[in-house]
Amino acid sequence: MQLTAPLLALTLAASAVTAAPFTSFLEARAAVNAGPEEQIDAVWKIHESCNGTQRAQISRAVSEMKKLAHNSINHILNHPMDEYFVKYFGAKADPAPVLGYYEQLVYGDKGNALLRCDNIDGNCRFPDWNGHWRGNNATSETVICDLSYVTRRPLEQLCAFGYQLGTDNPSQYFGADLMHRAFHVPEFVHEQIHHYADSYPDCLELAKTNSSAAVSNQHSLQYFALDIYSRKTVKWGCVGEVKAPTPKTSSAASAASSTAAAPASTSSSASATAAQVTAAPAASQTQKASADCHTHADGTIHCGTH
Questions:
Q1: Is 10 a member of any domain?
Q2: 160-169, pLDDT tens digit by residue?
Q3: Region of residue 110 (phi > 0: left; psi between -120 and 50: alpha; otherwise: beta)
């Protein structure tokens, strides 16, 4: 049946009227959906106790931490499951959590997290302490001790002066040191990062034996970021000599599988907070000045390779 011209025009007009409310609804909904997300606070704040010189050095170190994380993100996105990812996280590792941890450092909400310089817990009096997470005293706060300003190196010196990632302290570089410290702050990674392996060879062994633990191992994330970044500066990087893993690694890696999904305990043992562990073993004071000591929520102290 053919419609006459007047009837066709009337039909089209009626269709336009009927569709108008629906079109308006879609346009309004699109406008709402296109609105920007609420701005988050991605800045790691520096406490008023830090003077101008300290603030300048810490600010630069935070920028270098983000540079390391951002470079790692780009590498994983462009080369997922390549030899370097497998080396540090394992052949069966999922890149998603690794990407998420790095992205949190760059883009995530930093909340009330603070970097402070006033030695509020007194731990900076120990000769080898570069800083510490405050633990139960203030879980969102990290203290940077004066030693950091004279022993930490800028990122452009990575691989210089004979540095070897396989044997030397990764936290010699201020940006990498803050990456490590950031992983302690619950607001950043929601207590999903742990210490399953610390030394370079132990981290490589962990990747081979327990990839689910390796992707949330603090030092694996730190070593990967430094290694990948170093290869932008030096063609072959600067891993250098790699020693054999410690004998305890195999059993430790197996034990990690049962705890990989659970955050560190903060029960009664957590009462040994940063302020309460100032009576550090005398042996820790004999370590070299570049040693990094800090406390964990369960009261344990990590020094040396950190």
A1: no
A2: 999 999 999 9
A3: alpha
